[in-house]
Amino acid sequence: MNRARLSADAAARVEPARAFVSPSPARRVWRRFRQQRLGYWSLIIFVVAFAASLAGPLWSNDKPLVVRYDGHLYFPLFRTYAESTFGGDFPTPADYLDPYIKQRFDAPGNFAVYPPNHYYYDTLNYFSKAPNPAPPSRENWLGTDDRGRDVFARLLYGFRVSVEFGLVLTFIGTILGIAAGAVQGYFGGRTDIVGQRLIEIWSALPELYLLIIFSSIFEPGFILLIVLLSLFGWIGLSDYVRAEFLRNRQQDYVRAARAMGLSNWQIMWRHLLPNSLTPVITFLPFRMSGAILALTSLDFLGLGVPSPTPSLGELLAQGKANLDAWWISLSTFGVLVAMLLLLTFMGDALRNALDTRISDAMRAGGNQ
User: How far apart, in whole angstroms, are the C-alpha atoms of residue 238 and residue 186?
Assistant: First the structure.
């Protein structure tokens, strides 16, 4: 009995200790972020939309997902089949929008499962009877552009290209900005002065003119745009990182790390950087918005990704050239605005989650 009572007393003392274990800083930030309902749901919607765009061929494609023909199963989404495979006369790749091929699939014992939208982003429907650009219809949900391509498909894949471009450019710019700002802020003195003067000279270069020059020399593409925009996309962030390092390098924990014999790089990356990441994390959604707008602007001017790569900027240019085709501009503008609003709401919520003063004030206001 005494042993059982002692065990119960020990468990009673352990349970309160476990109950009051403080969560990690990352979990506290995530908890405060979830309390920002608008930003939290914006994150969920944005992630779901991006995941759906990554699975674009399952939603919008000119090839069936699965075909059963003459007792055999075919998967045109993953393999190219000749027209002669399905009773055609030519060994060329099958056109699954051809009424003859569709008629073969409608024969008894055969079937084809198509995606909800029967068009890829570069599909030209040669069998359409409506002149291009055609208004929204049952066949083309958001109409077609001036070349007969499905607008919904180009918006779906254009959204994916824009987000991928924004993620890659934001990642590269963040790494370069952190490295440049950390070196200047930690070492200070001549390193800081020389670095600031070099950044001022570099930022004075005409970025748009360089893009025009390189676009005339090389074929514009995703990689070229990433490289050129990354050369300038880190400058603004480096100023914030530099300011944080200048402010934190005189803190007691940095002096203690120096007294323990840690190297400069260990102090920078293990101690200073984790305590200087607040402005970096806060600006990530806004930097991504800027990258998406930069790609859209360049595509609108004809300096972006080459055709037939789907692009929101190219669709806006088509809407400008075809003012009577209102469905092109309206749908593209709606997707772009929705994307930027979601990123803005996420950035505001992330800023509030990282700033404990704002979170405490909002919590106190909610309790009242």
Answer: 12
Domain containing 298 equals 152-367
How far apart are alpha carbons 258 and 252 in whole angstroms?
10
The answer to whether residue 118 sits within a structural domain is no
Structure tokens at 333: 């503008």
Taking a C-beta distance cutoff of 8 angstroms, is the pair 90, 84 a contact? yes
Contact (Cβ atoms closer than 8 angstroms) between residue 160 and residue 50 = yes
pTM: 0.85
Q: At what angle do helices 151-187 and 37-54 cross, to 10 degrees?
A: 120
What is the C-alpha to C-alpha distance for residues 155 and 289, in angstroms, rounded to an integer? 17
User: Using one digit for the tens of pLDDT, what is the confidence trace for 9-63?
Assistant: 555 555 454 444 566 777 888 888 889 899 999 999 999 999 999 999 999 999 9
What pLDDT was estimated at residue 22?
Answer: 61
Both tokens of 210, joined, read 């360089």
Classify burial at 51, counting beta carbons within 10 Å of its beta carbon; exposed 0-12, middle 13-18, buried 19 or more.
Answer: exposed
* Domains held by the chain: number: 1
Q: What is the DSSP letter of 1?
A: -
Reply yes or no: is the peptide bond before residue 220 cis, omega within 30 of 0.
no
Asked if the structure places residue 10 within a domain, the reply is no
d(CA 126, CA 119): 12
188 in helix, strand or coil?
A: coil
Per the document, the length of the chain is 368
Residue 74 is assigned to a structural domain of this protein:
no
Residue 260 in tokens: 């323990």
What would the DSSP string read from start to end of 238-273? HHHHHHHHHHHTTSHHHHHHHHTT--HHHIIIIIIT
Across the strands, what pairs with 67? 74, 112
Q: Is residue 241 part of a domain?
A: yes
Residue 1 has pLDDT above 60, yes or no: no
More confident residue, 89 or 152: 152
Q: What pLDDT, in 10s, does the model give residues 105-147?
A: 888 888 899 999 989 999 887 777 788 888 998 888 899 988 8
CATH code: domain of residue 194: 1.10.3720.10
Q: Give CA–CA dist 135/76, Å, rounded.
A: 29
Distance CA 354, CA 282 (A): 8
CA dihedral 51, 53, 55, 58 (to 10 degrees): 140
